[in-house]
Design brief:
The chain is mostly helical. It has 1 helix and no strands. It has one helix at about 1-30. It is rod-shaped and about 105 Å long.
């Protein structure tokens, strides 16, 4: 009877060790995967924007 109790304890310890090793393996695999982060934004302009670009040497009437 003592041998059966002893073996049962050893089996529980071995099962816990296997579970821990499996968790360590999964953690190591997850560390190998790259991280992916995605973000985005947009701007809504309700009116047509008025853009006036002035360049040196270029007049607004089409003459240079």
């Amino acid at each position: 009877m003592q041998l059966g109790i002893q073996n049962s304890k050893n089996l529980k310890i071995d099962a816990a060790k296997i579970e821990e090793a499996t968790a360590d393996l999964l953690e190591a695999k997850n560390r190998q995967l790259p991280e992916l982060k995605v973000s985005g934004s947009y701007m809504y302009l309700p009116l047509k924007p008025n853009i006036n670009i002035k360049l040196p040497g270029v007049s607004g009437d089409g003459e240079s």
